[in-house]
Amino acid sequence: MTQPEKSPRKRIAVVFGGRSSEHAISCVTAGSVLQAIDPTKYDVVPIGIATDGRWVLESGDPDLLQITSPDKLPEVDGARAAVMLTRDSGGTDLVVHEPSQPPQTLGEVDVVFPLLHGPWGEDGTIQGLLEMAGVRYVGAGVLASAVSMDKSYMKVVLGAAGLPLMSSLTVTAREWYRDPDGLTHRIGELGYPVFVKPARGGSSIGISKVHHAGELAEAIEEAHRHDPKALVEVAAEGAREVECGVLQALDGTPETSVPAEIRITGDHEFYDFAAKYLPEEHTELDVPADIPDDVAATMRELAARAFEAVGCEGLARVDFFLFPDGSLVVNEINTMPGFTPLSMFPRMWAATGLDYAALVDRLIELALRRDTGLR
Questions:
Q1: Is 331 labelled a binding residue?
Q2: Burial class (CB in 10 A: 0-12, 13-18, 19+), 180
Q3: How far, CA to CA in Å, does 125 sit from each of 42, 187, 274, 318, 342?
Q4: Any known ligand binding at 109?
Q5: How far apart are CA 321 and CA 232, in angstroms?
Q6: How far apart are CA 158 and CA 260, in angstroms?
Q7: Residue 13 in contact with residue 39, Cβ under 8 Å?
Q8: Which residues are catalytic?
Q9: Beta-carbon neighbour count of residue 358 at 10 Å?
Q10: Would you state the pLDDT for residue 70?
């Protein structure tokens, strides 16, 4: 096995792609982060996870990691050289396997930057793998990632912490198969309209707005196509969608960004996948949000409380509904939010005084400072 020379720079493995339906969005995020990491400070290794779960050494060319049209989404090339993490007494190394070639060691990994959205990445799975491998990584740990990814359990935890939430009902595929009529009745008691969404999904994939009982079965089946657990939630009619970013200071305390607002334009009834990611103008983003100072202060306080309630680390975006009477309800917490320079999380922090490159550097520095294992 060939051995590399020791690099004086810290080695950062940027991991992206993954097996979830948000594979393409993860690739887009990675393209932006790869451009932002300072190459004079860090030795960067791009690692892609193909849709079938294979880990490969990717090119890292940001131009290949962009959405150019609705029919042209970026994807990890699973045919590239395989890569793996190996652990020994000296640390954790990256090893590349080319067909018909001896394994090549790229060297020790100092930090993994997991830019994975959705299941098998944002849900504690890769975090657990990295903990077992003894590698530091950016972002939330195993429990916080798992709880925040599963919206039904997220509501349990945030509700226990006294945070305001929308009424909801969890529907598993097994329960729906056994008693669709009973569940339809219980959902009707919530009051229409409702949103039906995969409990462990993201990027608005698999979400439907249901206006009456006749639309319910199709919406639940669509959500179950992505996740056997669906969340049915009362629609926040008349509310504004506002968000707040949370970022740990180097001493570990949570800091919050100025809030921002998403306003949907065109024919989109809610903030769906097309409105979020496709090139056409579907949304207007107000950064900072045009809201009263006292409401903004309350939102920032609630965001920090949500961050600490799930035991989050590194970063999170907390989404809210703001009602006409000024009351706020937590919608969800995202431990790996959209992270291109045009995404809400980086834009909120830029408006707060931390630009994109500095934000990426802060997250890497936080990861370098913390230990693996229990903390």
A1: yes
A2: middle
A3: 26, 31, 28, 21, 27
A4: no
A5: 16
A6: 21
A7: no
A8: 22, 203, 343
A9: 13
A10: 65
Residue 19 annotated as binding? no
Residue 194 assigned to a binding site: no
**Secondary structure string (H, E, C) spanning 15-83:** EEECCCCCHHHHHHHHHHHHHHCCCCCEEEEEEEECCCCCEEECCCCHHHCCCCECCECCCCCCCCCEE
Q: In angstroms, how far is CA 205 from the centroid of its own chain?
A: 13
- Which is it for the CA torsion 350, 355, 361, 362, positive or negative? negative
Return d(Cα 309, Cα 166) in angstroms, integer: 17
SS3 241: strand
Strands 315-322 and 229-234: unpaired
Residues 315, 366: Cα–Cα separation, whole Å: 10
Q: How far is CA 196 from CA 24, 67, 69, 72, 283, in A?
A: 23, 27, 27, 27, 22
Q: Which of 294, 290, 304 is nearest to 260 (CA)?
A: 290
Q: Are 22 and 29 in contact (CB under 8 A)?
A: no
Residue 196, marked binder: yes
319 is in an annotated binding site: yes
List, run by run, the mean pLDDT of 10-residue segments along the chain (375 residues).
63 94 90 94 95 92 78 87 82 80 82 92 93 93 96 97 97 97 97 95 80 96 94 95 96 96 68 49 84 98 98 97 97 93 94 97 95 81
Per-residue tokens: 342? 């045009």
Is 238 assigned a ligand-binding role in the annotation?
Answer: yes
DSSP 273-296: HHHHHSSS--EEEESS----HHHH
Contacts of 228 (CB under 8 A, 6+ apart): 172, 173, 174
Has 218 been labeled as part of a binding site? no
C-alpha to C-alpha distance for 169 and 349, rounded to whole angstroms? 34
pLDDT at 231: 97
Query: Which pLDDT score, from 0 to 100, does residue 267 have?
Result: 57
Give which of 140, 137, 129, 43 is closest to 87, Cα–Cα.
129
Pick from 95, 121, 12, 6: which is nearest to 367 by CA? 12
